[in-house]
Amino acid sequence: MQQRIAVILAAGEGKRMKSSLPKVLHRLCGRTLLGHVLGAVDPLCAEKIVVVGHGADSVRKEFGDSVRYAHQERQLGTGHAVMQAAPLLPPSGLVFVLCGDTPLLTVDVLRSLQVVHEERGAAATVLTSRVPEATGYGRIVRDTAGGLSRIIEDRDATGEERKIDEINTGVYLFEAAALHDALPSLRNDNSQEEYYLTDVLQILLQKGLAVAACVNDWRLALGINDRAQLAEAETLLRARINTQLMLSGVTMVDPETTYVDAGVHVGRETVLLPGTLLLGHTTVGEGCAIGPHTEIRDSVLGSSVVVRHSVITGSVLDDDVSVGPFAHLRPETRLHTGVKVGDFVEIKKSDIGRGSKIPHLSYVGDAEVGCDVNLGAGTIVVNYDGRQKHVTRIGDRTFIGCNSNLVAPLSIGEGAFVAAGSTVTRDVPAEALALGRVRQINKEKMAARFLQREEEG
Ligand code: UD1
Ligand code: CA
User: What ligand is nearest to the CA atom of residue 13?
Assistant: First the structure.
């Protein structure tokens, strides 16, 4: 098999994004534009060279050494960009050239490009598409036999040529040897004084080397230039992700309002209700019911988990857990099997043991809670003394009465009972009853006299 390598052009500024962030680092369904492109070529090309220029440091920081880089000091055109990568390319083999701003490309499209390339025995093959609106793109001019005759840039095109609706997507497959041969002959004698990569095709045509064009669905090669196109691409990609999930056995009551990032896993028989967002590195098991109106980010959920109207970040929920409505789980929360977290509960960096319940109006932070514990309504773990966070340990089968303050650092032994309304500042031994509140006094027959005085006063 021939060696395959990918060159991704990502040195341009992306002026129309009106952004301080390099264009290719803008995100679509949770992943950068460049990340999507790299993901599409990855199954075909282990080795990828990214041409960086504008915002090069940020791009290098984002992708680290997962790719190689070629630096383009000044952006003198797409052909010039490929010239910067040329020293890193092998003398022979196949070179895919792609742009960093076409996030909807799929590996299947690239495979079909290679099929056409090999069938035609071409030195270069360009991916084209027929688009509803061709303005701004290079147009594909074909000869009478239907072969590619040349690519003309929008600004260099005549009125007649501008009517052509077949465009250059900016995706190419080259024989490395032919590319190496042609690059040094590129000239910048055009309206932009740029070295056009498209002229390589022209040069190969003149040399009598076969050049082919492979037509594809325009949606797959949509290039992002501004934030309106970014939103358009996001809608298309979201629909693609949702369709794949539904075909794999996930129910979506309303796909239009269900937002699942690229790379999120959802198990079969899970139901996603309207207004659900599954973001970042998230995995949801089988038979869960998520939503409505729920945001889950960077979290792992087991099977048969129910989450309603809640926000969950950086947490792990085991099987049969139930959360919400209106709960907030913050990073490093772990809910073991069968835990129930109810309404208006916030949990941060805490481990809640099997079968424990925190049904209403509680804050739990920096706590290790055992199994089958019941935290009554209004339980507050007082984990912060204004300077430092402290840990609270609550043993198995303890019962914390309503409206208790558990002042950390604190340890409550197994099977202990904290009376409602207590402020607990000292450790509680196992099986003990802790009462930490003012003793109640009852004044006989005082109620009526008390009320009378109020009226007179
Ligand atoms: C290019 C094509 C055009 C095609 C279109 C598809 C040429 C001459 N024209 O035009 O036929 O229809 O893409 O979107 O190739 N880049 C660099 N360095 C540079 C210039 C560009 O890295 O010096 C990168 C950009 O970051 C971008 C890609 O190359 O990712 C395309 O550049 P862009 O300026 O958008 O090219 P177009 O003028 O749109
Ligand atoms: Ca472009």
Answer: 1
**Dihedral angle, C-alpha 291, 297, 299, 300, nearest 10 °:** 50
Does residue 333 lie within any of the structural domains?
yes
**Contact in structure between 29 and 241 (CB atoms under 8 Å):** yes
Range of the domain at 364: 310-434
Instruction: Please state, in angstroms and rounded to a whole number, the distance separating the CA atoms of residues 140 and 164.
Output: 7
Q: Which atom of ligand 1 approaches the CA of 8 most closely?
A: 30
Domains contained in the chain, number: 2
How many residues are present in the chain? Answer: 457
β-bridge mates for residue 417, sequence order:
399, 433
What is the Cα–Cα distance from 318 to 270, expressed in whole angstroms? 15
CB 43 within 8 A of CB 110: no
Q: Ligand 2 center to residue 121 CA distance, Å?
A: 28
What residue type is 364 in one-letter code?
A: V
Beta partners for 8? 50, 98
Indicate the pairing of strand 351-352 with strand 367-369.
Answer: parallel
Please tell me the distance between residue 181's alpha carbon and the centre of ligand 2 in angstroms.
26
> Rounded to an integer, what distance in angstroms lies between the CA atom of residue 381 and that of residue 369?
11
Residue 210 has pLDDT above 80, yes or no: yes
| 457 has a pLDDT exceeding 80 | no
| CA 418 vs CA 171, 408, 430: distances in Å | 68, 15, 11
**Candidates 71, 84, 99: which one to mutate for ligand 1, based on the most atoms within 8 Å of Cβ?**
99
Residues with CB under 6 A from ligand 1: 9-12, 51, 72, 75-78, 80-81, 99-101, 137-138, 151, 153, 167-170, 196-198, 223
Q: What is the mean pLDDT of the chain?
A: 96
Please give the single-letter amino acid code of residue 349.
Answer: K
Is 62 part of a structural domain of the chain?
yes
Helix (H, G, I), strand (E, B) or coil at 243: helix
> Cβ-count burial of 454 within 10 angstroms (0-12 exposed, 13-18 middle, 19+ buried)?
exposed
How far is 403 from 419, CA to CA, in rounded Å? 9
Determine, yes or no, domain membership for 271. no
Residue finishing a domain among 200, 221, 242 = 221
Query: CA 319, 325, 331, 334 torsion: positive or negative?
Result: negative
> For 340-371, how does the pLDDT look when each residue is reduced to its tens digit (9 = 90+)?
999 999 999 999 999 999 999 999 999 999 99
Catalytic residue flag (residue 336): no
